Structures
1.
Amino acid sequence: MRMVDLIEKKRDGKALTTEEIQFIINGFTDGSIPDYQMSAWSMAVYFKGMNEQERADLTMAMVESGDQIDLSMIEGIKVDKHSTGGVGDTTTLVLGPLVAAVGVPVAKMSGRGLGHTGGTIDKLESVKGFHVEIENDEFIRLVNKNKIAVIGQSGNLTPADKKLYALRDVTGTVNSIGLIAGSIMSKKIAAGADAIVLDVKTGAGAFMKTLEDSEELAHAMVSIGNNVGRNTMAVISDMSQPLGYAIGNALEVKEAIDTLKGEGPEDLTELSLTLGSHMVYLAKKASSLEEARTLLENAIKDGSALNSFKIFLEAQGGDGSVVDQPEKLPQAAHTFELEAKEDGYVSEIIADEVGTAAMLLGAGRATKESEIDLAVGLVLRKKIGETVAKGESLVTIYSNFEDVSKVKEKLYESIAISKEKIEKPTLIYKEIM
Ligand code: URA
Ligand code: CA
């Protein structure tokens, strides 16, 4: 096989075979196919697309390019949740203990990552003593015992995706539905998921800005999963404004605790119950979505969801008493209120910009080396559609700096108030199975 022939075949809009796609991914991973040919191929895919079979083949070739996590020692169906990313998205912290409480095994491998706040591990590390540096055997033992454990990323997962994503980034080929779907799904499958629940965000603060694009991506990922033997479904949810109220590490842990107690923000609670119901259903712990939801609602009511969080934290060295005394989490030295400059309805809270304001406080990492401040961040006091009076607080700023003028400026730019009545945005647009 010659790469140039495969580039031409795709350029002319023909479908590639399983063997041809394996040849491309293997050759690119081992370096025998140079970047310039891979770039040309990616651009051909960008313009001509891939059919369902090609997308599944690409995904599996990338899965097989590196290590695959073996979770077969864990009893039950391992369901993973993946979000395409948003601002202040506390759902992972809520969902893990929540579904574990009803018997779904949560074997999470997680990273730190760049962004407006830290990743799931950073957030959890705001609980004193909690750590993810555990051996594989211990990880498996904990999931079997408590139904939930988190381990730091290790091994060489999907090296082909790493290399290809970096190349796409500089060749104008990131925004191809087939390539994005393959990239995301390959990572989930290599991490050992039997079934996958996807939270595809849509709106100004999301990777996919329009409902149409979000739906197309969701369909692409669901069909890849189902084509390679992993039960997969997707929820399309709103990211026109941040989810919940808190954006920050310790602040989101506190928000997760509130939500597990049944006292969390309405949108975060609803999205967690929706995603959680699908996880419980795919794990075959309930025979319908309604039954799954009732199980989860009961776990919140009877305290078992909160208790599952406590047990999980303690099993990995953390101080579990934070679930009863969240004031033990890192606290910022100062708080400031962002006061509304006029009366009206909150009409816009640009998620990306609010995220940037949280980063200015030190809640996130700009580069791999940056230190993050676990205590700082933002808590929204108003969401889109709510009324506000002049002088009322729109946001509480938790800071370890005394001067937050730049943060306030950024927040004023990102929150709009209108005289006309504004409806609350839809939270869940679609469920795709
Ligand atoms: N996120 C990924 O992991 N891969 C993509 O290609 C795009 C977003
Ligand atoms: Ca939040």
2.
Amino acid sequence: ELILEAVDLEYCYPDGTSALRKVNLEVRKGEKLAILGSNGAGKSTLFMHFNGIYTPRAGSIKFQGQPISYKKKALIELRKKVGIVFQDPDSQLFSASVFQDISFGPLNLGLSEEEVTKRVRQALIDTETTDLEGKPTHLLSYGQKKRVSIAGVLAMEPEIIIFDEPTAGMDPRHSLEFIQLLNKLSSEGKTIVLSTHDVDLAYSWSDRLAIMYRGEILAHGFPGELLTRP
Ligand code: ADP
Ligand code: ADP
């Protein structure tokens, strides 16, 4: 079942950089989709379209078969369903404490304080950051910030979670822990999309894989069809 889709998507930055050229990509409900590509391939730019942060120059994004609307109210609804964890956790953390930071999104949804607290506690457990809840975010280590930024997205309870280069710069142990967290979310029914330049990770983790190069999708399909292991 299709949930999210890019259709002939094109995007150009104000300086003239053509970042996406006729990108077509399907995200299916419940799958683990990896977008493999080197730096500058257009992965982040594509992700910014998936929850309406960027407006395409041509083509469209469809959610459950319908082109998304860029009206304020519709975007708020879309962002409840499509969450993005950015590569740099500092771009996502801005409250005084970890607890406040994770609460920010759910509070904005207008949920009761009780519901917000319940969601924050669950997100703290899922990301193994319970011991950090009272800590100021600026005192966290990089790995801790990364986990708290994920918790903030989880607390929104999105259907689809998009991770931009989540394991970039991580050592193998942290990478493995992170992949275990993704697999847990996946087993709970979330749709997970991640970008990476790690061929092994893309191959071993994903249900489906798309390869991006210079703003284009070169190939997509099942990992076994696209890559052969040496
Ligand atoms: P990736 O996430 O795969 O590394 P990006 O989507 O960040 O790729 O970048 C795609 C292309 O767009 C690259 O050529 C990059 O240099 C360019 N780009 C990204 N952000 C900007 C920006 N703010 N202004 C101009 N060009 C940009
Ligand atoms: P923790 O406190 O959870 O053990 P660390 O701060 O030690 O986390 O870092 C977790 C992972 O993130 C490590 O693999 C480390 O290499 C990586 N890392 C640390 N700082 C940065 C950074 N500035 N950019 C990218 N990766 C980083």
3.
Amino acid sequence: YGQSQDMADMWDSTTTKNPNKHIQWFKDAKFGLFIHWGLYSKLGGTWNGKHYYGSGEWIMNQAKIPVRKYEQVAKTFNPTHFNADQWARLAKEAGVKYMVITAKHHEGFSMFDSKVTDYDIVDATPYKKDPMKSLAAAARKRGIQFGFYYSQFQDWYEPNGGRNTWDYTESKKDYQRYYREKAIPQIKELLSNYGPLGIMWFDTPGGMTKDQTRAFVNGLRKLQPQCLFSSRVGQGMGDYKDFGDSEVPPVPMEGAWESIYTHNDTWGYIERDFNFKSPKEIIQLLATVASRGGNLMLNIGPDGEGNIPYYSAKFLKETGDWLSVNGKSIYGTTAGFIPKQPWGVTTEKPGKLYLQIFTRPNNDLLLVPGCLPQVNKVYALDGGQPLGFTKKGTDLLVDLSKLKRTVSASTVIVVECKGAL
Ligand code: FHN
């Protein structure tokens, strides 16, 4: 697919010529958890009695809240319900293999103990603890890779940070000073004080030349060579490509890449959120992304007390229930060579084709078009029920009639072949 070559061309020499050898865990992971948690989580999309629709984490920008007013929110930010083990347990039950949480979003507030600024959760709030330490440990204890989101350019608190145009004049900003005095020292803190990180996830790059970004990247490598970072570091760099928010490539993509979606209506918590993706939507999205060869990182937005929204917890657990039975058809797979079908999508492992059936044909005859090598056996992944099949030219017809009619977001059929697919 042409874009994979574009990706190769697009990537800087720091990746295409010497790709990070630690990338394989990421390619096999397939499912990650994104967490947006900051002062905005306490506001829940409302400021001065007005509700701002759209991304909860953008409320300071949407309401053009002056820095001196917005920073007051920290004085009552006290997430006493935060429980690192509970969050990590949910991540495990959901079946995610990595977790990325906002260390500092565009609001400029540090959700970790930083010596670079007092505008952080330990110095500026009654909570006075660093939740990131305990969350990193709880995730790792459960075999989940831990990583940070860091808004490296947009910082609406700092006079020289990017994009606060309501308190400061953009043209008068010294971005290099912001990087030198805040962003780079904080990223070093994150890469030095929280153990081995799986991912540093940068967002909306700016204010750096290509050479500066390359030096920035190489600095990260020296601190934690195994830490991956996505293409949102900017300038075509990164160990893997991130698509735009809520984007999935239309056809399989080579290389390591990730689609990012949010489970709720926004990324940060909003009080009146009525649009949580169902387990079926999550599972079919995950299978579709995996069928194109990539990962899905799904976001949740805990509230200002440290609670994960009820429907996010419930639907993630139900997604994990499906993965506990069908995970073999997702984790460690590659893109299915058969394009999307009326009945669903496919994923692959050597010698195995996994049919992700979203819509069961009414006549129970499943047409699998494509030049399959010799098919040895066909069976349901859940329970192993062997299924009848016949070849029709180069196509395969699978008889599903023996399959019990259970309701599932995706019924997985395994086609075992002799030789490579
Ligand atoms: O502006 C941010 C937004 O708040 C959110 O963090 C998303 C997540 O991918 N990233 C930026 C918009 O793409």
4.
Amino acid sequence: RSKARGSGNYTFFTPEMANALVRQSRIEANLRNAINQGQFILYYQPLFDIKTGKVIKAEALIRWNHPELGLVSPNEFIPLAEDTKLIIPIGKWVLRTAIKEAKKWHINGYPIKISINISSIQFQQNNCAQIIQEFLDEAKLDPQYLELEITERVALANPDSIIRKLNKLRSLGVQIAIDDFGTGYSSLSYLKKYPVQSVKIDRSFIQDITTSTCDRNMLEAMLIMAKNLDYSTVAEGVETSEQLSLLTQMGCDVAQGYLFSKPLPDDHFFDFLRRMLEKKESQLASYG
Ligand code: C2E
Ligand code: MG
Ligand code: MG
Ligand code: MG
């Protein structure tokens, strides 16, 4: 039992807290070996072009298949991987695996883009562009089909050096997206200097658009401004057909979310793609 500072209240060390600590120490202890042991897997989630109703890209999302804990979410281990710099080999594995998978889709007649999340640590490595180039060459994937997602917070942290790095990546022919847009307190006009092609509006801004006029207005303002700057706009976390129809009315370009599909393991995603691309009518029709 420990006395909380000043307040005269007591905080207790609960069994939940003990479990959380045990879990965290297991995660820490095993992360280093997880790559060699082949315990990471990539899931893929489709993104739909709202106008044509077609799947145009997929985001690669990592999971850790932990021997005792089962599937561990990236929210739980990516921060730790960043602290320990293990994100560098993990990030390389993600790039290489996802780029190869995209090539497989292409070979099978599904020429969609692959979006890959890049951590700030990876991004700061001097050889980041070189590594990406190597993996593109290795898989023989046309660079225009690769999109790198960097979070808005990273983009804002060190603008000049970030812009230089982004330009270097752009010169490879890859696309850049700002992820979790709206959570970093920047304005779109600020991002104008960045060589960015699309902005992914964070789920928290989409969540309540059908019930909150304020949220709807805010989203509308973001979309208008993004359009003026010539960015493709992506709505993250679309869960209901009501949200989709509002986004359609507001002119949002691309939608991603559980309404269409949760992230899927590679074989399931491949089946999903096949089913979608066999449809003659809008692939979105069934979700409206
Ligand atoms: P993110 O890049 O913003 O990815 C979107 C997250 O939202 C994913 O969570 C996805 O599963 C989830 N999501 C998608 N649609 C919906 C929806 O309709 N409703 C709800 N509630 N959630 C939805 P996930 O897969 O757990 O990934 C969490 C975060 O971990 C990602 O956020 C990204 O920042 C990070 N991450 C994932 N994979 C990687 C990776 O390979 N490398 C790095 N550096 N970070 C990664
Ligand atoms: Mg992302
Ligand atoms: Mg995101
Ligand atoms: Mg997000």
